[in-house]
Fold this sequence. Notes:
The chain has 7 helices and 14 strands. With 241 residues, it is of the alpha/beta class. The protein has one domain (16-240): 4-Layer Sandwich (Metallo-beta-lactamase, Chain A). The protein has a 7-stranded mixed sheet with strand order 1-2-3-4-5-6-7. A 4-stranded mixed sheet has the order 8-9-10-13. α6 runs antiparallel to α7. The relative contact order is 0.13.
Amino acid sequence: MAEDTDWVVHPHGELVPLAENLWRVEGKLPNMDLERCMVVARTTAGELVLHSAIAMDEAHMAELETLGTPKYLVVPNGWHRMDAPRYKARYPGLVVICPAKARSMVEQKVPVDGTYDDYASLDPEGTVRLEHFGAEKHMEGALIVKSADGVSLAFADSLFNVPHRPGCFWFVYGRLLGSSGGPRITLISRMMMLFTRSKAPYRDFLKRWAETREVVRLIPGHGDVVSEGAADVIAELAASL
Ligand SMILES: [Fe+2]
């Protein structure tokens, strides 16, 4: 049986550049009709921040290393941890970061060096930052990347952008639970925020960024990048909470 640290590769796409310091790769999730994505950001020091890491084939890992030095591994919630131990075994010097509320779940798989509060800015210029959606209650936060064309916000399960799909799973999970058909804060995410009374910090985060008009790109944990009218989309999402 494969160990958690064995380099197991599932089908994935290309490392797609989104900005001069930002890339995204989408991959298949085993046993689930849902894609996942890894975001790679580069700090001003040339260090790579790997958000929601996906183990890639050797050609793409070599390509990754041409972009910069893998330095930070961000596990964005308690579930997106599958490939974290693989990366830590491959790059033992990686600094592992996760939201405070996800720490106990992430630590079941990989040692954690600190939370989003401990590593709020990953370079002195603040081009790559991490922010909780309320550290005490919400299990997620966002990766915030400043590029020449504006600000990108990367999420985990707090934002989906998956089109409607056929099949039973997508009828229930997508249409009935409101997880598909455009940028969505899923019902599961809403329920979690309801139970933990943690809606306000996430709503305020979206509102604040909507007001700055600096956001040019939303990168959901599952689904397509939102690059058209991103500031308006987050304003609508905030209003829906
Ligand atoms: Fe997810």
